[in-house]
Amino acid sequence: MATGFFVNERCFWHSGGNYSFLVPVGGLMQPSTAGGLPENPETKRRFKNLVEVTGLMRALATPDADPATEEDLRRIHPQSYLDMFRRKSAEGGGELGLRTPFGPDGYDIAALSAGLTKAALFEVLQGRLDNAYALSRPPGHHCLPDFPNGFCLLNNIAIALEAARAAGLADRVAVIDWDVHHGNGTEAIYYERADTLTISIHQERNYPRDSGDFEDRGAGAGEGLNLNIPLPPGGGHATYLEAFERLVIPQLHAFQPDAIVVACGFDASGVDPLGRMMAGSETFRAMTEMTMEAASELCEGKLVLTHEGGYSEAHVPFCGHAVLEALSGSQITAPDPLKDRIDSQQPGPRFEHYCSTLIAEMEAALEA
């Protein structure tokens, strides 16, 4: 038994085309000498490289994974969408939705990304791993059944969950999304279902700007089983942990899941270009440890994290390493060179009190 780390080099070959930050090159937008889209392979590849260089990789299980099957994809995405995606992929790429550019072989690589999440979940649910991390790319939490957006082309977590349910491996599953952006795709898929608790803790009005409100609590059979925790820009380590203690953990205990899956984005980092929050690597470590404790109490430790956002090439590797240290219990560390900077920029007591008041209001509304 060990912690699994699911990674495939081909996922790093996913391409979004010629962009400068979030704007296509052309007209007055000059081509970039390096980079391109913020969602690029380097944050993930550098994460994997750091895990190898420190020696932590040797303490992890690194099984292979197959792409998600067509049947797996069809449980979430309509055939018409899959056919269009496959056709554009064969033609060399394009864009299917809002901010979802992809290049040649985009369909195959996205299916492999979903397959990494599926394999990680299956290995944990079947008892071959204690817990697991899937370094999935492209990400998935923004993707609705027939509308990709926010760099997400297939909903990796939903595809994995429904494959596990079809195999009789799980019934009630909780999904925690701590990416800085609202997990609107996963929310939409499970909004009216009673078998999945969806929790998204995110920067308010970041992306998408018109979703992620606390008042959106689910509907029909899923009423009360969707929890959005929108936090104001600038929220830091203490705010994230307070939200976890007072909102996330109680909801997990009320739901009593068979397994917990985390949409693990590192873009709440204090140096991320697409977020305005002040989390550090120790924030992600602490949230992982709190989730592990809840999983141990509720579902025999069955916990899977799958990679979503995080766009700081310098910081993502250290945030990811801290999470893997927690998951595996390893004593192999990678001291975060940005820790002192982010610690020194944490918000002061007045702002933390303001955030605490917002969390208390949400807590009171949940208990009403």
UniProtKB/TrEMBL annotation:
* Ranges where the Histone deacetylase domain occurs: 38-326
Q: Which InterPro entries match?
A: HDACs, His_deacetylse_dom, His_deacetylse_dom_sf, Ureohydrolase_dom_sf
- Annotated Gene Ontology MF terms? histone deacetylase activity
Question: What's an example GO BP annotation here?
Answer: epigenetic regulation of gene expression
Q: Where are the transmembrane segments?
A: none
Origin superkingdom:
Bacteria
Q: Which Pfam families match?
A: Hist_deacetyl
Tell me the CDD domains matching this sequence. HDAC_classII_1 (cd09996)
Name the family the entry cites. Belongs to the histone deacetylase family.
The protein here is known as: Class II histone deacetylase
